[in-house]
């Protein structure tokens, strides 16, 4: 195993704490984003599929900047649909229009948000990150890390919150039955959105990244957390400033403010998102929770079995509203 034993994970609690102005910071950030109209633009994409209709979506995210997404709807569905808003793992984007067909095939409206400035590591992306940044380690984890207002994840989390508004505004969607879902970075984004919105019906976070930063950089040498270590190796003496910024973006602090039912997963041999960091957010989560544990897996977690469990979980929580 790469981290604590199961009996230790059961009692582990993160030492992370929220800055005194955490809620004010995010309220001001989202209020500023709200001054920009969503300006949702949909263009149907000819995919050749007979069971799913796909739309290329553009909406205005942080700073009024354009963010892309795919919207997939089951063909012929009648009545308001439950919706899943999905966020993508580190380095990835929204992918190809023919990828990721599970959720629409299962009867959900599915909005898959692109990830600004990423989307070339392992899947396609179409959204630039239009913001100046001081020098950083390759990747995005240290982009603007010296102060919260300029940090990369302030922009990305704001995009993610507004993506829920996009989904809720789709005519075929039941606005009271919208859930968020993601794995790794996408799981961390899901926790952030859960802590920033009170209108979600469910949350799924597979092996979430961006949780319990103080512990993560001490127990793993794997990337992307290693980007923080690399940064501090060069920017000596900036540790306090860096970890102060990260506290505004830590999944532990968002989890403490979340209320929607949540499904987590953790893999006990995961060097990328060590299980103790996942449990740090899991034990801090203020709403009802479930955990799927994969003792013999690494960062892939439960793979398709995670998705199978999430399908049952989301059907249950979305049907109950």
From TrEMBL:
<dbReference type="InterPro" id="IPR029058">
    <property type="entry name" value="AB_hydrolase_fold"/>
</dbReference>
<protein>
    <submittedName>
        <fullName>Acetylxylan esterase</fullName>
    </submittedName>
</protein>
<dbReference type="Pfam" id="PF05448">
    <property type="entry name" value="AXE1"/>
</dbReference>
<dbReference type="InterPro" id="IPR008391">
    <property type="entry name" value="AXE1_dom"/>
</dbReference>
<dbReference type="InterPro" id="IPR039069">
    <property type="entry name" value="CE7"/>
</dbReference>
<feature type="domain" description="Acetyl xylan esterase">
    <location>
        <begin position="2"/>
        <end position="315"/>
    </location>
</feature>
């Amino acid at each position: 195993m790469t981290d604590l034993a199961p009996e230790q994970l059961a009692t582990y609690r993160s030492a992370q704490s929220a800055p005194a102005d955490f809620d004010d910071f995010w309220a001001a950030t989202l209020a500023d984003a709200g001054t920009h109209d969503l300006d949702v633009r949909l263009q149907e994409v000819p995919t050749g599929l007979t069971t799913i209709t796909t739309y290329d979506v553009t909406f205005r995210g942080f700073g009024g900047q354009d963010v892309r997404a795919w919207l997939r709807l089951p063909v012929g569905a009648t009545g308001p649909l439950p919706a899943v808003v999905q966020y993508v793992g580190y380095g990835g984007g929204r992918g190809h229009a023919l990828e990721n067909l599970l959720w629409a095939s299962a009867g959900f409206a599915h909005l898959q948000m692109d990830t600004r400035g990423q989307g070339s590591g392992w899947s396609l992306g179409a959204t630039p990150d239009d913001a100046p940044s001081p020098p950083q380690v390759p990747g995005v984890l240290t982009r603007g890390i010296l102060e919260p207002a300029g940090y990369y994840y302030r922009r990305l989390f704001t995009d993610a919150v507004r993506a829920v508004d996009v989904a809720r505004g789709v005519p075929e969607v039941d606005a009271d039955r919208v859930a968020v879902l993601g794995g790794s970075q996408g799981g961390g984004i899901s926790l952030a959105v859960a802590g920033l919105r009170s209108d979600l019906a469910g949350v799924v976070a597979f092996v979430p990244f961006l949780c319990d930063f103080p512990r993560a950089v001490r127990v793993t040498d794997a990337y992307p957390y290693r980007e923080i270590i690399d940064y501090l190796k060069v920017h000596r003496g900036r540790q306090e400033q860096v970890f102060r910024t990260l506290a505004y973006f830590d999944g532990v602090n968002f989890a403490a403010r979340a209320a929607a039912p949540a499904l987590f997963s953790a893999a006990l041999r995961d060097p990328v998102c060590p299980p103790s960091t996942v449990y740090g957010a899991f034990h801090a989560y203020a709403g009802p929770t479930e955990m799927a544990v994969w003792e013999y897996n690494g960062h892939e977690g439960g793979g398709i079995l995670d998705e199978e469990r999430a399908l049952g979980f989301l059907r249950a929580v979305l049907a109950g509203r």
